[in-house]
Amino acid sequence: MKTILTVAAVVLVGFGLMWWGRTNQAPLPAQASGGPSTGAATTGGQKSELAAPEILYDFGTISMKNGLVYKEFSVTNPTEKDITVSSMFTSCMCTTAYLLTAEGSVKGPFRMPGMGYIPPANETLKPGESRTVRVVYDPNAHGPAGVGQIDRFVTLTDEAGGVLQLDIKALVTP
User: Does residue 70 belong to any structural domain of this protein?
Assistant: First the structure.
């Protein structure tokens, strides 16, 4: 009888933890919905007024043994009003993003939601100004299971709820 009660208690606790984890989970970014090359890729929200001349970068074939790879994207405010980037996050823990400010300092690291603290971006771009978003991808982050094609995203959200998504791709080899 004790064994049955113990097993039942363990099962109930397990289901309770799964239910609690599911209800407290941060929303995951959606896949890119495409868009024009001006940087209008979004995650289902409204498109940001921010523009990027390049929103997709393919590293080609990269080897795990060669370590981290980097890509810098330029993001511009083509409007006549200030736009504030309120938040940035990545689609996977293997990817980290940094925002280079007008003063030359670096904000970040920005990572995947739900995997630790993500600082607010709070970076205002005046009309015509640009900022650099540095994306760092670690091909070793997933170990041997991470070999193959990857597609990762960095999402910038402005104060109006507009979204700009930057995309990196690669073929990871051992």
Answer: yes
Are 84 and 131 within 8 A, CB to CB? no
* CA diameter of the chain: 74
Residue 130 banded pLDDT, cuts 50, 70, 90 = very high
pLDDT one-digit tens code per residue, 8-18: 777 777 666 66
Structurally, the chain folds into a number of domains equal to 1
Report the predicted TM-score, pTM, of the whole model to 2 decimal places: 0.72
We report the CATH number of the domain holding residue 66 as 2.60.40.10
Q: Is 156 among the domain residues?
A: yes
The dihedral formed by the CA atoms of 159, 39, 57 and 157, expressed in degrees to the nearest 10: 10
Q: What is the extent of the structural domain holding 93?
A: 30-173
